Structures are given as structure tokens and as C-alpha cells.
Amino acid sequence: MVPQYRHRQNMKFGFVILYCIVQLAVVVVADDPPGHMQPIGSHMPPMPIEEREDLPNPIEFYDNYVKPGIPVVFKGAAKKFPNFNDMKSDEYLREKHGDFEVLVETAKKEDRNNPPRTMNLSNYLSIYEKEDVYVVQTMLPPEAFTKEAFVPKCLLCQGFWDRLNMVIMWLSSGGTKSVLHNDSFENLNCVLDGTKEFVMIDKKHADLVPIDNPDRGFSSVDVEKVDMYKYPTLGKLPWYIANMETGDCFYIPVNWFHHVSSSQTRNLAINLWWRASKEFKYREECEKSLADIPEYDTLWNYRLNNGIKIEDLTFADAFSENDTTTLINLLKITYKTLPKEMEAKEKKMILEKLQELFYQGDSNKDKLLSRVEITALTSSIIHDFLTDEAVLDEEGDDDPYNEVKEEL
After folding, report:
1. What is the pLDDT of residues 323-382, one digit of tens each?
2. Cα(406)–Cα(408) distance, rounded to whole angstroms?
3. Which of 110, 293, 303, 368 is deepest in the core (most CB within 10 A)?
4. What interhelical angle do 344-361 and 400-407 show, nearest 10?
5. What are phi and psi of 358, to 5 degrees?
6. How far apart are CA 347 and CA 332, in angstroms?
7. CA distances from 345 to 107, 321, 338, 351, 395 (A)
8. Interatomic CA distance for residues 379 and 310, integer angstroms
9. What is the pTM of this model?
10. SS3 call for 136
11. DSSP state of 110
């Protein structure tokens, strides 16, 4: 009987050991890294970003924020824009800009492998509250919609506006989420409706940010459920938070990593990108004009400069499958994109400038313009096309405007 008793005791002891091992394994499995399978930023408390109730002048803005690369939220800055209340109204946008063609992302959670579609703004406004879509649309003069975008005081010196590169409108019914990414431009984002939350990571921690799509500057990490085993360096990253309310403008320094989520309500923002600079050009001229700088000015009075590619304008549809276009085709496509309210004289001016651009770009003189040729043009030539300073050739025999009208 004693051996059997000892056998039973050994078995019981063995079960106890096994039970402890299993429980220990459960504890180890349950002890995941902080923030695992939680929204990005859950691994540690955030640090705050500076907020200001006023807008600095351009020199102060450059010296205190842009040059050192320090993000800052300007509270209520966009509330001074004359169209601030109008932009909250779908009816206003539909009545004023219903024909404006916009690029529409087909998922509110950003997927850069998901192709967008185009439609006019009126059609978008009729579906956006019911479908998983949002507008990400570049705004370029002379498009009439650029009259709805305003440049705040902190950018109203030549040292900034000469480097203005791109202006984008974001419009959704809310709930959008961006990928974790960074931009190679300086950025001022103004929220005209709704709210936004920014998760920010200083560019000095670039070696810890898992940018697994370096050619496109973004990470594949799921921002709603971060896999800390797959992306362990994220658990070591200090981060900042910026909460934007309606009417706020937020400066995002070049190359800072960020993830943006919008409120669950109608959300509209316009952001301005400009090329980074190690020095503030035209400082002396700006200092002389500080007393006369207004609180804002319309984008319509400015032109996007440098780094602009023809594909980013209105001409993408003009290129055939072999990436070339004829002059008449380029003129026809561009003519169709011009605002209906634009005067005939202005349209003629634009088409004549485009004709000049075509001839300058056609380097092999085969009467075809290729994407390679157009992207080889200097930025100053592109800028000349975008300005409205061309002189009409009243005596010229060739009239591209009439030729296009006949083709149409």
C-alpha cells in the first residue's frame, strides 16, 4: 500500500507542477508589450504640443517654429477667414462649386494601394454621408475653388509664398484615419469643420519608425491595432499629441511622422505645403512690410511654385497610353477643365501659354509631348504657365483658342 500511496502522491505532485507551468505560460502570453493590438500611441502617455492664441508674423514664425522644426497649434486662426461659416454648408459648396472635379478615396481608413475615383463635388455631397468615401483634392489656380482657400498671416511674405508647393482640401462625413507617414514639405493644416487628432513623432527618431514603404513615405502598421511584436521599435518611441478644434491651424514640420484621425462628424480641412528652406529668403523685404501684413489673403492671389509636375495639374487625361499627347489634344483637355465662369479672354490667354509650354517641352520636335519631356521642363516654365501675366498675341495668325472651339 505504501508504494501505491507514493505513486499517487508523485502523480499529484506532477499535476501540480504541470498546472504551474501552464499558468506561467498563460501569464507570459498575457504579458504583451505595452500598446500591443491597441491604437497607435497607447504604449506610453503623450507629450503636449504648444498652442498659441495668436498668429505670429512670418519672421517670428520662421525663427521660432519653422527653422528649429517645432510644431505648434494656432487656436482659432481659421475663424478669421471670411468664408469660415460658409464652408460648413454643403449647400454653399454645391451651389458655388458643384461642378468642381474632385478625387475621392474609397475608404475612410487610408489604404494607399486602393485606387481613388473622380466625380464632381455635387455628386460627392449626395453620397458622402452614406458611403465610405472622402475627398483628397489638390487645389490649383486658376481653379475657382482656390478662392475658398486662405493663406494666414504667418505665411504672407515672399520667403514663404515663393515656396508654396501644394494646397489640398480634405472633406468627409468624419471618421477618417491616415496611415503613419511623413511629408517632405512644410505643412500648415487648417480645420474649417469638425476636429482632428494628430499623433506626432519627431523626425529625430526616424531610425525607430518602421517606414516599410520608403519610396512613398509611409508605414504599413495598422494604426488601430498596432502589432508590437511585428513593430517593436514603436514601443520605444516618445510621441506628441495635437488636438485640433474647428478653426484651428496646425504647423507640421517637414519630415515629422504623423497619424491623423478625424471626428465622427462632417470634417473639412485645407492644408498648405511649401518647400523647406535652411534660411528665410527676402527677410529684409519682409521686415519692412510687417506692419502692413493682413491677417489672411486668398490663395487666388498666389501661384504654386517649383516642384510642380504637369501630371499634378489638369493635364493627366491628355496623355495617351504611350504617354504622349498632341498639341490640339492637350488644348482640348485643358479647355474642358477651365471654370465655366471664366471669361473667354482669360481662357484664350491660358491656352496660348499652354501652347508655348508645349513647344518648349517638345525637345525632339516630333510634334508630340511626352511625360518625360514635360517633367524635364524647368520649374520656372511651369510657373510661367500658372501665372496670369501672359501677353496676348493680338496679331498672331495661330489662335489655339479658336482651333479648340472648332474641334469641340
Report:
1. 788 888 888 877 776 666 677 877 787 788 788 888 887 877 888 887 667 656 544 455
2. 5
3. 303
4. 100
5. -60, -50
6. 12
7. 41, 33, 12, 10, 15
8. 10
9. 0.70
10. strand
11. -
Query: From start to end of 236-315, where are the E strands?
Result: 240-244, 249-252, 257-262, 267-274, 296-298
Q: Which amino acid, residue 106?
A: T
**What residue ranges in 148-215 does DSSP mark as E strands?**
150-152, 164-172, 181-182, 186-193, 196-201
Query: CA 254, CA 241: separation in Å to the nearest integer?
Result: 17
Contacts of 76 (CB under 8 A, 6+ apart): 53, 247, 248
Residue 372, all three cell numbers: 518625360
Pull the grid cell for residue 7.
505513486
What dihedral angle (degrees, nearest 10) is formed by the CA atoms of 282, 313, 150, 147?
Answer: 130
Cβ atoms of 299 and 141 closer than 8 Å: yes
Q: What is the pLDDT of residues 178-216, one digit of tens each?
A: 999 998 889 999 999 999 999 999 999 999 999 887 766
- Across the chain, which distance is largest between two alpha carbons, in Å? 123
Amino acid, single-letter form, for residue 7: H
Question: Which stretches of the chain score pLDDT less than 50?
Answer: 1-2, 5, 7, 15-16, 22, 24-29, 306-314, 378-380, 383, 386-397, 405, 407-408
